[in-house]
Each structure stands twice: as C-alpha cells, then as structure tokens.
Write the structure tokens for this entry.
Amino acid sequence: MRWQHSIGIYWFRSVGFSPDSISFQYLGCPIFQGKPKCIHFRAIVDRIKVKLAYWKGALLSIMGRVQLIKSIVHGMLVYSFHIYQWPIKLLNLLDQWIKNFIWRGDITYTKICTVALRTICLSWEAEGLDLKPTCVINCSLLLHLSWNLVNDDSQCALMVRQRFLSYGRPILHHFKSSVWQGVKEHMTTVLCG
C-alpha cells in the first residue's frame, strides 16, 4: 500500500501538481483550496497587464480607453469576481493601472490628474464616466452570489445552506473554503435585508 502512495505522489509531481495543494485553472478561473491569495490570481492580473501594455501604442481617446476598460478588462475579471473575494492589494493595483491607462495611455507612468478618480467613477447623469472601481464590482458580485445562495432552490444552494448556515445564520468558525471567505461577509446583509 505504501508503494501505491509513493507512485501517486510521483505521478502528481510529474504532471506539475503537489499533493498538498492542488490549484488549477477551470474556464479561466483559478480553482484552489483555502483563503484567496495574490498568487492565485496572478495569471489573470498578468493577462490584463499584457492587454493594457499592448493597447498603449494605439491612438485612443480617453473615451476609447474607458470603453476598453469597461468591456475587456472588467469582462476578464467578472467571472472570478463572482466567485472569490480578491485581495485588496491586487484590487488597488488594478485600479492604479486602470487610472494610469485612462489618463496617460500607459500603466507605468502616473500623470497628475485634473479630475479625481471618484469623480470619474460617477454615473453619466452625475457627469462622470460611469467607471466603477474594481473593489465595488467585486463586492457587488459577491453580494449577488450570496443572494442566490440564500434564495435559490438549486442543489448547490441547498448544499451551501446546509453546510455553512445554522438556524438561518452564518456559522462563524473557519472553513477551508475559498468561496465562503468572500460570501460570509455578505451573507448577513442578505439574511437581515
């Protein structure tokens, strides 16, 4: 039996996995166990950085840059934002790159802006560019996921309610779940609202 265990470990290592922490990509979203860390989302962030660097050479107006951010970059983030609570460090980095790209066209150079980022993020009616910060998008999508888990009758929602809720309230002790880390903060809002 011991030799079968060592063959299994050898097989995992030969295909690039270690048996203690298996993480991989599924449909462009990282799958891992435990609390979300910066290393888990590095591939997505690197792809965004490459996209922004590639668009640097294009002669685009500010509105063209805003449209690229809203359609392409936010589209690359939405799927994983709907599942995981991203580390604030990465969200701040992405917001910095987005701000630099909109004002300067290059993510590496910071330009002194005449309009604050919070003014740009206002809606069209309030004379902003309707550009949302990444942390707001992440929180709103996790709130949507929490709402679906509480109010849906799917098997996944029933399993989550049985495992993570006790008497209609979230269980406070630690679970080794990567999704629950972000959902538990919003679950009380959904249950009380």
Remarks:
- Residues 17 and 23 are 8 Å apart (CA to CA).
- The chain has a mean pLDDT of 82.
